[in-house]
Specification:
- By secondary structure, the chain is an alpha/beta fold.
- The chain contains 15 helices and 19 strands.
- Helices cover 34% and strands 24% of the residues.
- The strands form 5 sheets. Strands 12-11-8-13-16-17-18-19 form an 8-stranded mixed beta sheet, with helices on both faces. A 5-stranded parallel beta sheet has the order 2-1-3-4-5, with helices on both faces.
- A hairpin with a 2-residue loop joins strand 18 and strand 19.
- The structure holds cytidine-5'-triphosphate (CTP).
- The site of cytidine-5'-triphosphate (CTP) has 17 residues, from helix 11, strand 16 and helix 13.
- Cytidine-5'-triphosphate binds next to helix 11, strand 16 and helix 13.
């Protein structure tokens, strides 16, 4: 929360049904601590009244370059100079065309043109019918505005207001907020390819039963999100959890420890950072039954035999790729007591440069946690905070420990 404290956003609305999502986006930006100045085109006012946006933003909306409230009669200069970013959502096909041409005959396009390019970024959230989206003119204009320095966000796929189905829906307000937060995050992991395991594993006993644990996957998902925001390409290998995939993260769902190992090994060679947050089951039934095991009337539970699962982290940390220093490995330790002693021993046993300890029962399923970081230099605590904040802090800590590329003179 409050991740946008101190930031001032000009939220521009051009014409489109998606204006209703911008009302929610305005609320979300303000909840994160930003101040928001709404600017609407005349077309946008056919879809949403300025009064609604005024009520949500707490500021009167601007719609005309002739607005007499500005003593110097230059709202395009005043509004664009104050902004930390201009976000146009929805950005209609017509508005993209105006930007591509550098038009300046109404306030929103005028202030986009008049913004200082180096200090005031422009983010565009396109919204239009699928045929308009696919039209070469639109794609040409989008490529042009991107080349001119705008950040063109993606579009969603699905049912459209016109009754058709396809690409061109504006992203949801929560997705746009994630994009804005990502935009403001320093790119400490630019160029890195991060592989993360998260959640529990599920070890089948028979087709309807299995063994699993209380890991929610929240810490691993928070790290995946923070790593992507910091500029990394992120692949998340997730055990069975019901969490939404962070934006821009490639997710691969797996069930058992063996599935997880296979998915990890396949991708570890291409990665530069491996973070093992998954609570992998240590044991699996030796011979899962292909049919449901039925009660036999004896009152006795059938005897199950177990075999040890592969240690995914140790396997990756001992691979040639990691041993030559091309893959930075981070392990987690979920302990119930004596965290420092157990985590110190675990770091040595797993052979990883950084191990992150936490008290498992205190954090499983919760939104907050506290972490103990252990590396060759010693240990330090990351005090209790939300998993979101801890994920961001951990990404910073990892970035600071990465081998520095050799600089050529
Ligand atoms: N881990 C793994 N594969 C396993 C077991 C653990 O990749 N089969 C990883 C976890 O993702 C975590 C770290 O190893 O990063 C430590 O996991 P933990 O279960 O705490 O440790 P164990 O090795 O199982 O040790 P112990 O059971 O003695 O606590």
């Amino acid at each position: 929360m409050n991740e946008l404290a101190g930031k001032h956003i000009v939220l521009g609305l051009s014409g489109g049904v998606a204006c209703y999502k911008s009302a929610e986006l305005c609320r979300l930006l303000i909840k994160e601590g930003a101040t928001v100045q709404v600017v609407m085109t005349e077309a946008a006012e056919h879809f949403m009244t300025p009064i609604t946006m005024q009520a949500l933003s707490g500021r009167t909306v601007y719609g005309s370059q002739w607005d007499a409230r500005e003593p110097n009669h230059m709202p395009h200069i005043n509004l664009s100079r104050e902004a930390d970013a201009i976000v146009v959502a929805p950005c209609s096909a017509d508005f993209v065309a105006r930007l591509a041409q550098g038009r300046a005959d109404e306030l929103l396009s005028l202030l986009c043109l008049a913004r200082p390019q180096n200090s005031v970024p422009l983010l565009l959230a396109p919204a239009m019918n699928r045929e308009m989206w696919a039209h070469p003119a639109t794609q040409r204009n989008l490529a042009q505005v991107a080349q001119d320095g705008a950040l063109v966000l993606g579009v969603g796929h699905g049912d459209q207001a016109c009754g058709e189905t396809g690409d061109g829906r504006m992203l949801e307000a929560t997705e746009l907020l994630e994009e804005v937060l990502a935009f403001f995050t320093p790119k400490r992991l630019a160029g890195q390819r991060v592989l993360i395991t998260a959640g529990p594993t599920f070890e089948a006993i028979d087709p309807v039963r299995g063994i699993t644990n209380h890991s929610s996957g929240k810490m691993g998902f928070a790290i995946a999100r923070a790593a992507r925001e910091a500029g990394a390409e992120v692949t998340l290998i997730a055990g069975p959890v019901h969490l939404p995939t962070p934006r821009g993260v490639q997710r691969i769902n797996v069930q058992s420890a063996q599935n997880m190992l296979a998915a990890v090994v396949e991708r570890a060679q291409a990665a530069t950072i491996f973070i093992a947050t998954a609570a992998v089951a240590d044991w699996r039934p030796a011979a899962p039954s292909e049919q449901k095991i039925k009660k036999d009337g004896s009152g006795q539970m059938p005897v199950l035999h177990f075999v040890e699962n592969p240690d995914i982290l140790a396997t990756v940390a001992q691979s040639p790729h990691a041993l030559v220093g091309d893959l930075f490995c981070v392990g987690f330790a979920a302990e119930s007591h004596d965290l420092l002693a157990h985590a110190t021993a675990k770091r040595a046993r797993k052979g990883v440069p950084l191990l992150v300890g936490n008290i498992g029962p205190a954090t499983f399923g919760r939104d907050d946690n506290a972490l103990l970081l252990l590396d060759a230099q010693g240990h330090r605590e990351l005090p209790p905070a939300s998993k979101r904040v801890l994920g961001q802090q951990l990404v910073e800590e990892i970035a600071a420990r990465l081998p520095q590329p050799l600089t050529s003179h």
